[in-house]
Amino acid sequence: MATPAFKRVLLKLSGEALMGPLEHGTDPDRVRTIAASVHDVSARGVEIAMVVGAGNIYRGLAGAAEGMDRATADYMGMLATVLNALTLQDALERLGAHTRVLSAIEVTEVAEPYIRRRAIRHLEKGRVVIFAAGTGNPFFTTDTAAALRALEIHAEAILMAKHGVEGVYDADPSQVPEARFLPEITHMEAIEKGLRVMDSTALSLCMDNALPIHVFNMADERNIDRIVSGERVGTIVRTNA
């Protein structure tokens, strides 16, 4: 087995990644598959943290569009990410992994409060750390939370799992059949062209701090291990392509 190319990474999962074939909610088989992939990488000695969205349960923007106050809707979305974090924690621990959920919103009965130094210490001890509740602030997405947490814990890369696409394209492949796959682009190109990698705030954070993003298809459970092994998978977004 190849020596890992990274010592510490952050995996960003959308809530939709947990749905599997379902239209909403959580598919237990899909969660088990994701947990097994993460556990295998952790067992290789790679320190791995996770940020998960909540699109399978609740979308703050959808609530805001229906007339709800945006801040209230976003707080509801943050709480939904705690549910997904606990789901992943349970699946990982059933496989024998040691985990910690750290929440940006205080829910002390089920998760530790987010403290940067504590998160780093958990990683150093080989625990899988799951960051919940986004940044703890409304108007910021879980993409931005992923970029922020990755920088705070000194992750070497963000692994950006996508649902149903192999990486980044120059147009939406679901709407433009001739969309061209892009194996490598810069953060600035992604921002200027409005490519759906991460939101612009998250991309700007990564660009300003030269943090690479590996965008890949989560449907193939081997992809995380391949990226950690140094293989070219999906699209790499970096400061200088």
Q: How would you characterize the overall build of this protein?
A:
There is one protein chain. The protein is of the alpha/beta class and 241 residues long. It has one domain (8-238): Acetylglutamate kinase-like (Carbamate kinase). It has eight helices and eleven strands. It has helices at residues 28-43, 60-65, 70-94, 116-124, 142-152, 187-192, 200-208, 223-228, and strands at residues 8-13, 47-52, 99-103, 112-113, 128-132, 157-162, 168-169, 181-182, 184-186, 213-217, 235-238. The strands form two sheets. Strands 4-3-5-2-1-6-10-11-9 form a nine-stranded mixed sheet, sandwiched between helices. Strands 7-8 form a two-stranded antiparallel ribbon. Strand 1, helix 1 (28-43) and strand 2 (47-52) form a beta-alpha-beta unit. Helix 1 packs across helix 3 and helix 5 packs parallel to helix 7. The mean pLDDT is 93.
List keywords for this structure.
8 helices, 9-stranded mixed β-sheet, 241 residues, alpha/beta, Carbamate kinase
Q: According to CATH, what is the class?
A: Alpha Beta
Q: Describe the biggest sheet?
A: 9 strands, mixed
Q: Would you count the extended β strands for me?
A: 11
User: N-to-C terminal Cα separation, in Å?
Assistant: 28 Å
What class would the helix/strand composition place it in?
alpha/beta
The H-level CATH homologous superfamily, spelled out, is Acetylglutamate kinase-like
Q: What is the ordering of alpha helices and beta strands?
A: EHEHHEEHEHEEEEHHEHE
Principal-axes shape call: globular
Determine the strand fraction and express it as a percent band.
15-25%
SS summary, helix count: 8
Strand numbers in spatial order across the main sheet: 4-3-5-2-1-6-10-11-9
> What is the arithmetic mean of pLDDT?
93
What is the CATH topology descriptor? Answer: Carbamate kinase
